[in-house]
Task: structure prediction
Amino acid sequence: MTKPSPLSGFPELLPTQRNAELVIVRQLAHVFELHGFANIETRAVEPLEVLLSKGEIDQEVYVLRRLQAAEDSHDTGLGLHYDLTVPFARYVVESSGKLGFPFRRYQIQKAWRGERPQEGRFREFTQADIDIVGRDELAFHYDVEVARVMAQALADLPLPPLRMQVNNRKLIEGFYRGLGARDTDPVAVRRIVDRLDKLPVAAVRALLEDVGLSDKHAELCLALTQIRSTDGSFVDQVRGLGVEHDLLDTGLAELAAVIDGCRGLSNERFTVAADLRIARGLDYYTGTVFETVMAGFESLGSVCSGGRYDALAVEGSTTYPGVGLSFGVSRTLVPLFSRGLLTSTRSVPSAVLVAVSADDSRGDSEAVAAALRRRGIPTEVAASAQKYGRQIRYAERRGIPFVWFPGGDSTVDSVKDIRSGDQHAADAAVWTPPLDDLRPQLISKEQTP
Amino acid sequence: MTKPSPLSGFPELLPTQRNAELVIVRQLAHVFELHGFANIETRAVEPLEVLLSKGEIDQEVYVLRRLQAAEDSHDTGLGLHYDLTVPFARYVVESSGKLGFPFRRYQIQKAWRGERPQEGRFREFTQADIDIVGRDELAFHYDVEVARVMAQALADLPLPPLRMQVNNRKLIEGFYRGLGARDTDPVAVRRIVDRLDKLPVAAVRALLEDVGLSDKHAELCLALTQIRSTDGSFVDQVRGLGVEHDLLDTGLAELAAVIDGCRGLSNERFTVAADLRIARGLDYYTGTVFETVMAGFESLGSVCSGGRYDALAVEGSTTYPGVGLSFGVSRTLVPLFSRGLLTSTRSVPSAVLVAVSADDSRGDSEAVAAALRRRGIPTEVAASAQKYGRQIRYAERRGIPFVWFPGGDSTVDSVKDIRSGDQHAADAAVWTPPLDDLRPQLISKEQTP
Result:
């Protein structure tokens, strides 16, 4: 084999980075499970007609064909899923008779898109999704719950500051309707306003006037997008614009409930805020919408998005409404890894390397390792009876914090913290490393400006 | 959406089954990490030339093309990996400068093969692999170690009895060479003997004579395949056949070391045995070889296989020898799930459902849930303030063992074990469920003959 090169868009992690990703993925799973979300995995492939039913991203799908299939029938009709929502919707409909609703699930899996790779946009990437889906109905309080659960999962991660921005489609649509511009399509208005991150304000104002809004109404629409708050004060700010509509009232109450429900979860690294500019491009959202930006990494776009959809899936006369959030594990972590801003304390799980004093005493070292493992301490035994200096360097290169020296028949065992050099007598039946040394820990660095 | 049908060969699990798979996968990962194996994940795709370098299974590869790519260039040149060994070998060579050798890794991922589905043979399946790979050399004691680690990982799983059968290529080849049949190719002999599971003994004997073995020598080859033992007694049995060769001695010593190293790990559900018939079809094994059969499921073939290969990969003048084992997670578990022989205690992680007495007291129930979660107890809150009977049935259907009734301002809280009906006063700040109820547990049933 000649030395292979990485494939653009298919990031792979070195063991030290993977340890950091594992810590984070396990912490996400832990929080999701604490809140009763059941894990599922869906197959990597879906029939093309399922993947293309949304219509917008067909150019990005990878289609499978069997290498040795007959020339004239080489496609399997299957493609790799490009997100976890489409397969989840299919799974819910397929298994609906065997699931309990509301069905709360989390799913941490890879997805694939054949798009041009750029930072944070990969051809293969891991997503961590939570959704709650109902049959025919789903109470609003689940919007608050998914926000709280994801906020709790993300708030304690040592990432650059995250800001989860929440808005509500009913609020926006009610506002546009309340303007009284009866002939104006609120969806068209929303789509124009959604272009504020790409177009200058004047251009957006002109487009709003093109679809029939008066100067004053266009100005009100733009004023709405300026409103944001980390508490319920956005409600009075919206009221101050003087627009009234029942749907606006519902939207304001829902958004206030989400912001209020996440009270107490914000900290210096994680904020939940009402932000009346965000709308999410996708048309299937019908209420709460979420986007999350990472400070210093705004160019990645949203790293955690989602919202309420009244019809995740429809089968016959049954509708499955849902609400959920999707955290881009690869989108968030890979840029941090590649800039050296996130890593872990070591490349192996081992907390202890048991030294080998002579090749024929390897069994003694194995016995020490077995005793430590019985008490849950990840341990490996040195490769061979090299000089102790070389065995210590073996541990150092891997970030293993402790080296254990079996005493043999004559002396007692001792354990050395190779970072400090401290060495003391120890008994493998009782010695325990500090909790922070038991497993690889995350190391995050501040981005230098 | 019309109700979708399952795709043949792409098994998906219901949440209760997935909980069982999760328990098992986490237990495997825990044991691997206790022994210092670092986790890695490789991308799902490899360049076709990497996938096809082994040559034998090209008809099974799924090739990717981008749906909207130009007609005349529709293949990406990438295929889905069909095992975890080929991508691991490529990863080792690609990252060799950044890895510490010997490199111990585990990998639990899906693989894909476009083959015809049958029980235990899927188009998408999960494997759990451990390997130790060296640069230029790898001490024999690692053969013993991977056997011990996998044995320890599998021995405590509530599966039908597993028998890990170990042999050694040096032993077999040394035996054939020791016969003195100089003109006979030992590889040819091994391949013929390997057909004993498909051909009658007489046919195999005839084939052996076809390649130049005498009656007596063919008989000795067949006698060798009859030898098996769960201890070192196989050595004397082989010696009793009167064949001598240095390579045979080495193979006997290595096999005896593996069997001896796994002493103490066998129990009523898991056995490690020397079995001199098994050879593994793949030519790249050069020493220890492993196969594992599951009692009552012999038709699945081996559920955990592997061995020693002197050249996992070669790059320039550097060789990477390795030894490893691969456990077929899907191959083993999916047949057990589909026959109802393995499941878990519930479909959700939740140990507690907190009831809601009135819609406006949902906050009280949420506060109880938060208190329980802070102490690591997975908890969900009832969907709505239905009659308590319906809330209890909600818990029952999901297998949630406890329902919590907030007392409100007037009375104390109480918790009910809905299996026994026992209900008693409880304080969310201190109450803890029995350890066995904290997380979903495996339930295994004996196969009825």
The mean pLDDT of chain A is 93. Chain A touches chain B through 86 residues (CB under 8 Å). Residues 15-34 of chain A form the longest helix (20 residues).
